[in-house]
Specification:
Elements lengths: L8 E3 L5 E3 L4 E8 L4 H12 L5 E7 L4 E7 L5 H10 L4 E4 L7
Antiparallel strand pairs: 1-2, 3-5, 3-6, 4-5
Length: 100
C-alpha cells in the first residue's frame, strides 16, 4: 500500500519538517507571562485546538512558545491574536532567535 501525501515527511535542512504539498511554517514568540506548569498546559492545549496547528513546544526558561502550522489553515497573526486573547502578552517575535 502506497503512502498518502499526509504520511510523507520532508525537512528543509534546518529545523522545519513538514508534509509534502502543505504550506508549512513555524512561529516563535517570546511570551512574558508564562508562570508554571498550569500556563504551559493551558497554552499547549488551546493552541492545539486551532485548525492547522501541528505542534506546540514551550520553553519556560526562555519564555518561548514555538508553533508549527499549516498556513492554509491558520496564520501567524491568528496564532498571535489567540495568545493575546488568552491573556498572554507577546513580548517579541522570536522567529530569528535560536536557543541552546
Amino acid at each position: 500500500m502506497a503512502e498518502s501525501p499526509a504520511q510523507i515527511r520532508i525537512t528543509d535542512g534546518y529545523t522545519n519538517t513538514g508534509v509534502i504539498g502543505m504550506p508549512y511554517e513555524s512561529a516563535n514568540f517570546i511570551v512574558e507571562s508564562i508562570h508554571g506548569k498550569k500556563d504551559i498546559k493551558e497554552i499547549k492545549k488551546k493552541l492545539d485546538t486551532l485548525h492547522g496547528v501541528s505542534s506546540v513546544s514551550i520553553s519556560p526558561e526562555h519564555n518561548l512558545v514555538s508553533v508549527d502550522y499549516d498556513s492554509s489553515g491558520v496564520s501567524y497573526d491568528k496564532i498571535e491574536n489567540f495568545l493575546n486573547r488568552m491573556g498572554y502578552e507577546i513580548a517579541a517575535d522570536a522567529s530569528q532567535i535560536t536557543t541552546r
